[in-house]
Fold:
Amino acid sequence: MQLLLQLLAVFAPLVVQVDAKPWPEILGPSRAALPSPAKEVKWRSDVRAALAEAKASDRPLLVTLRCLPCKQCAGFDAAVLEGDGGLEDVLAQFVTVRITSASDLDLRLFPVEGWQDLDLSWWGWILSPEGRIYSIFGGKDHVADTTRISPEAFANTLRRVLEHHYDPRRDAWDVDGAAPVLEGKAPTPLSLPGFASWEKRGAQSLKKDGCLHCHQVNEVLRQPALDAGTFDKRRDLQPWPLPENIGLVVDRDDGLRVTKVLAGGAAEKAGVRAGDRLAAAGERKLFGQADLRGVLHRTPADASAVDLKLWRGTELVSVAVALAPGWRATELAWRKSIADGNIGALPGFAWPMAAKPELRRKLAIPAGKMAVTPWFGKEPKDWPAWKAGLREDDVIVAVGGESPDLAVRDFMAWFRLRYEPGDAIVLRVRDGRGREREVRYAAPALGKP
Structure:
């Protein structure tokens, strides 16, 4: 027995080495020989036909999803279609597809729950001819539509994918996940378990223009947990963490170069340095910032660490970045599925407008404090706040004793994260003459005043 233990101690490291992926080779210089690009970029609309074309030509597939009614990311979408920022030549290396409704997504090819930020109106999927996910592209934060994406960043991601796709060693590496099985009828967001229940709330966009928006797919995905009473706002609303959540700042246009390591953050403690280049995370090869965010998104909130591989000059460095409780939290107010979605309660009036500066001064409302004017829409008498005495010329200065300086979408997200239908709402309001009073009512459910 002692001899056996000694032999195991000697040969165990060798066994591990045999099973391990050859990451220096996978992440190192490519041996790809790229073919000549197509003469022009052609945007197709049939994904299955495009997949067959990709197989026949051995070209990777690029599928963009763009929700046309949404203004967000419209400028970036136009830049992609026009081939700005060096995109035209690289796009000509792909079989390109453009989808304009989330209703049409085949969830076997596009597993949106773990791979797409559904609060965005533009998203890119980069697939192998077999439908394996090479990379994803897209991003936004609370600052602007363009703080996480650019044509240059997209072009860099696509070039890296090409170098990977055409590397003759790729099949042996087997690092791109499983190919989807595409037999039978395609499951779509309309076939998700929560769709019927969600639709009963009044899916106006489906009735009005026949389109299921991406943010509504987010709502459909969370509807079963809402119906079962198991949805937790704190636990279940921390999607798509930023690189900053683990202490990194990544160059937007490069997509992989670390420009700053936040002092005292998890990445600094793990030994990451400014100038390092992201290479892999959680056993996924990275092609751009969105791929890192995807790994973080799929990492459980209670995980202890996320593994990163980085190039430091010519040295491949592996680090384990420790994850503290609450590490996933980000700004949520910009997310339409939260501010306008199916969580929490309505505030009792249609929309919270920001009081104009002259009105704030007239009523002596200090800077940094709430100053919201309620809008009731066409049928004000249907709203609980109107029935309780609130009027459009009133200014709300506090809700439930809290007075953060929030309005419009920021207020809606804040309110919905705090209140459920039936909760007692206490508004502190000032009328046009500066007189204060309280307005009390029960918070209404979503889908009705």
Q: What stands out?
A: The chain is about 30% helix and 20% strand. The CA atoms of residues 204 and 339 lie 16 Å apart. Residues 2-19 form the longest helix (18 residues). The first strand starts at residue 43 and ends at 44.
